[in-house]
Recover the amino acids of this structure.
């Protein structure tokens, strides 16, 4: 029978506070896979303990805290980004994504891959067309353009299938070569996120609230005395 260790929530935090690159995505994917392996070991150990006590249960009944992926990015490599999207979706442990500051370009498909998505109130989001630089012989550049069209259609299909953003609107944005910025409120409306994280000052402890400067009361008699020379 294996030992059951307490789950450390700090070990379930993953950060992507940079451009979407092969290296940054590799780091996040490895962390997600590592947590999944440990969670499977934890579940098996839990089942062993329950069995030793004469109980049996479905592994699905053992609930574990989600992986939290903190996300803030201007975007980047589409290929590496979609690799991370697949890793998030395939994760047996649910992945909760929390947005900070900005989530743009390739960051959007990564965001909508999350099993649960939240954003801080001041987060800015942005959508636009796939971009690239081509060089070489004519046929090589034509092949690159064809591949860009495939990636564009994949991007449109992926975003629209996981949100309520209108497909026609997204195609119009791409056709106009437009950078389309939107707020956390819009992201919630179009189901890019499930929740807006906001600070309610009424719920903050009184001593943590900003104190207003007190007005000094003036004695009228003092004013008269001050006026005498």
């Amino acid at each position: 029978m294996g030992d059951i260790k307490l789950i450390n929530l700090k070990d379930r935090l993953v950060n992507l506070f940079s451009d979407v690159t092969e290296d940054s995505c590799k780091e996040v994917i490895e962390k997600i896979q590592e947590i999944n392996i440990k969670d499977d070991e934890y579940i098996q150990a839990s089942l062993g303990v329950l069995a030793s006590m004469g109980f049996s249960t479905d592994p699905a009944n053992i609930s574990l805290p989600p992986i939290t992926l903190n996300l803030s990015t201007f975007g980047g490599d589409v290929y590496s980004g979609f690799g991370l999207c697949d890793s998030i979706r395939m994760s047996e442990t649910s992945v909760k994504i929390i947005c900070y500051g900005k989530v743009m370009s390739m960051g959007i498909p990564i965001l909508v891959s999350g099993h649960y998505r939240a954003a801080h109130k001041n987060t800015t989001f942005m959508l636009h067309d796939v971009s690239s630089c081509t060089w070489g012989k004519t046929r090589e550049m034509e092949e690159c353009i064809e591949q860009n069209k495939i990636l564009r259609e994949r991007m449109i299909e992926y975003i629209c299938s996981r949100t309520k953003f209108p497909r026609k609107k997204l195609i119009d944005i791409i056709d106009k070569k437009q950078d389309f910025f939107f707020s956390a409120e819009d992201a919630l409306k179009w189901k890019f996120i499930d929740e807006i994280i906001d600070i309610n000052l009424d719920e903050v402890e009184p001593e943590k609230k900003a104190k207003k400067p007190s007005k000094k009361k003036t004695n009228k008699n003092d004013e008269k005395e001050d006026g005498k020379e």
About this structure: Residues 223-229 have pLDDT under 50 and may be disordered. The beta strands are 13-16, 67-73, 95-104, 116-120, 124-127, 180-182, 195-197. The two ends are 93 Å apart (CA to CA).
